[in-house]
Design brief:
Helix content of chain A: 40-55%
CATH class of the domain at 186-299 in chain A: Mainly Alpha
CATH superfamily of the largest domain in chain B: Cytochrome c-like domain
Oligomer: heterodimer
Number of helices of chain B: 13
Radius of gyration of chain B: 18 Å
Number of strands of chain A: 5
Helix content of chain B: 40-55%
Strand content of chain B: under 5%
Strand content of chain A: under 5%
Number of strands of chain B: 0
């Protein structure tokens, strides 16, 4: 796996040879001659990188043929359909060459030169090296072509305007392959490349402005456009910053979906299932090292004193406690302590106390299982309560768990519960 | 919907959910793992006959496995289940299917039969003889003489709620996402039935007492096996 670890940063001379060999590759693949060892290796590396970039996650519909596209992505700018990227000549990218592919991944341009929409996260993929892009292309070329025509995007006016997209790009898109920082370790650089580039964590974990462009604060957390989930900050220790976590625990969470202190849910569980669980141990460690460096440390100053609660608030929380004892305690424990690796603790859980209650309300409304992964193949599940208790009761119990056992968070109203509804299913 | 909510809240506040002391050790069982499922597919006929929740305990494993994959993969639609199943693997779904298939819960009492004797007569003909004129085989030719299903892919027709049976035929006949997006032997038959027949079936089936055992594949004629190939030849179920 050493080879993978270094793949981002290869000396120029080597890059040129690889570049040359990639130019002849499509021919050899098409001729179906027994691909030579270098080609096979490149294809395998491409498959791995495609996993790390989770290309399949968007370019495959639920239950559909891999990479044949058709998945619909809902954004405030319209409904986008991921295209077919199998090597079918008519409906896929069968007629593309390595340069066309590079133009798409690196510059966000389609084969006809039109600008692509940034729902396709080329704003992050631009950091991918040419060598890695070529490997991904070689892998896609090696797939069986699937003839599948997908519906066109339904873009809300005025966003369907290429000129606006051009303006958007000049303001918000900075093209450029990742430049290693030689004052940092190899792991840190590899992690940075994976997180900021191929892994496109920014696509969700960054606040968006009204133009759907990421704001300055990369990875500072944001509500994911069109999905009703909040992707927490990977910097703040009050959200999902992991500055104080051990490398092992970060690796465990990202590769299995659960750890002693946290559990992945919703879109994050999907990312773990589709992508992160397949990363090599070296790469996961590199990601962990980089995430640790991003995370701000918890300030050791006196933990913010919890102000005394007015009687009215205590009564509200007591109602939540009753719901908790009846519906939740069996799994999450009398004191919200949970069962490590089985049921997440709610006491001291940042997902529960962070400012946005959205994810917590959603967990209670819809329930869910952490992802089934090689490291946690038979996860335990959380029931959905949307049909079982009223919004008022959900508001009580969420307010309660945000303020019990030393937790401290704002109260939640039934209106907050109702406005958290909605999803892609 | 209101009615379901009401029923569930009555059921869940009843003794069935009575709290045990907080467990020190969580049992390492499938029963514990699939708690989110048994809220709706409970150990008794919790939701009652009129509600919409189908029984899944004791159904053949291959059938349940196929349905779970369908719900997860968007080929059969029910939001609450789509969300729960989203990130589960084929291997795990197979295990969950086998778990529910192995359960033996008591069945509900049959519903009161409100059909006229003429209607009953024509239902019995349809079920046990089919209608060769319209190329409809007898239901029992596929679902077994006792209508208790044929392992491992064909489910029992008995013990299902009225609203559920009606909804399934609706799904097949409209070819919507609820069921029957991809045509198979069952959706073809459902499309050939008249709305009156569907209505009568949804009354007749829940009124039958549940007796007998599910049958084995040998009872199916080669012609019917051929007809249901798209279902029987799906990969992943160990024979």
């Amino acid at each position: 796996m050493k080879q993978l670890n270094e793949s981002g940063f290869v000396p120029i001379k080597q890059q040129i040879t690889v570049l040359l060999s990639s130019l002849v590759l499509p021919l050899s693949v098409m001729a179906a001659s027994p691909a030579n060892k270098a080609d096979t290796e490149q294809i395998q590396r491409g498959e791995y990188l495609a996993r790390a970039g989770n290309c399949m996650g968007c370019h495959t519909t639920r239950g559909g043929k891999p990479y044949a596209g058709g998945r619909q992505l809902n954004t405030p700018f319209g409904l986008f359909t991921a295209p077919n990227i199998t090597p079918d000549n008519e409906t896929g990218i069968g007629s593309w060459n390595g340069e066309d592919f590079w133009q798409a991944l690196h510059y966000g341009k389609g084969k006809d030169g039109s600008y692509l929409y940034p729902v396709f996260p080329y704003t992050e993929y631009t950091k991918i090296t040419r060598q890695d892009a070529d490997a991904i292309f070689a892998y896609l070329r090696s797939l069986s072509p699937v003839a599948q025509t997908n519906p066109p995007h339904k873009i809300t006016s005025p966003y369907d305007n290429q000129f606006l997209l051009f303006l958007w790009r000049t303001w918000y898109f900075k093209e450029g392959v990742y430049e290693p920082d030689h004052s940092r370790s190899e792991d840190w650089n590899r992690g940075n490349y994976l997180v900021q580039g191929l892994g496109h964590c920014n696509a969700c974990h960054t606040p968006r402005n009204v133009w759907g462009a990421s704001k300055e604060d990369k990875l500072a957390g944001g509500e994911i456009m069109g999905t009703y989930w909040y992707a927490p900050s990977l910097i703040s220790p009050k959200e999902a910053g992991v500055g104080d976590w051990s490398t092992d625990e970060i690796v465990r969470l990202l590769s299995t979906g659960v750890s002693a202190h946290a559990v992945t849910s919703g879109p994050m569980a999907t990312i773990v299932r589709q992508s992160l669980q397949y990363l090599s141990d070296d790469d996961l460690r590199a990601v962990a090292v980089y995430l640790q460096s991003l995370g701000e440390k918890r300030s050791d100053a006196i933990p913010g004193k919890i102000p005394p609660m007015p009687e009215r608030v205590r009564r509200y929380l007591a109602l939540g406690e009753t719901v908790y004892e009846k519906r939740c305690q069996d799994c999450h424990g009398k004191s919200g302590e949970g069962v490590p690796g089985v049921y997440p603790s709610l006491a001291g859980n940042r997902s529960v106390t962070m400012i946005s209650p959205l994810n917590t309300v959603r967990s209670v409304l819809y329930g869910g299982f952490p992802p089934a992964t090689a490291g946690n193949p038979r996860p335990y599940g959380m029931p959905s309560f949307q049909h079982i208790i009223r919004d008022q009761e959900i508001a009580w119990v969420v307010s309660y768990i945000r303020n019990a056992w030393g937790n401290f968070g704002s109260l939640v109203s039934p209106e907050d519960v109702d406005s958290s509804r909605g999803n892609e299913f | 919907m209101k009615f379901i909510v009401f029923i569930l809240s009555v059921i869940l506040s009843g003794p069935a959910m009575a709290q045990q002391p907080a467990p020190s050790g969580i049992p390492d069982t499938l029963e514990q793992r699939v708690k989110p499922c048994t809220i709706c597919h409970g150990d008794e006929d919790r939701a009652g006959r009129d509600a919409y929740y189908p029984r899944i305990a004791g159904k053949p494993a291959g059938y349940l496995f196929n349905q779970l994959r369908n719900f997860r993969d968007g080929k059969r639609y029910y939001q609450a289940m789509a969300i729960l199943l989203e990130n589960l693997s084929d291997e795990y779904l197979l295990e969950i299917a086998q778990y529910f298939a192995s359960l033996k819960y008591p069945y509900p009492e049959p519903a009161v039969n409100t059909l006229s004797s003429a209607e009953i007569q024509s239902m019995e003909t349809l079920i046990h003889s089919g209608d060769p004129g319209r190329d409809i085989p007898a239901c029992s030719a596929c679902h077994g003489k006792a209508l208790m299903g044929v392992k491992p892919y064909i489910p029992s027709l008995l013990g299902l709620p009225h609203a559920y049976v009606a909804a399934q035929f609706g799904g097949w006949r409209n070819g919507g996402i609820m069921r029957g997006q991809t045509p198979d032997c069952m959706s073809e038959i459902a499309k050939k039935l008249s709305q009156e027949e569907v209505n009568a079936l949804a009354m007749w089936l829940p009124a039958q007492p549940v007796t007998g055992e599910s049958a084995e594949m040998e009872v199916l004629s080669p012609e019917l096996v051929q007809r249901c190939q798209t279902i029987f030849s799906r990969e992943g179920f160990p024979q």
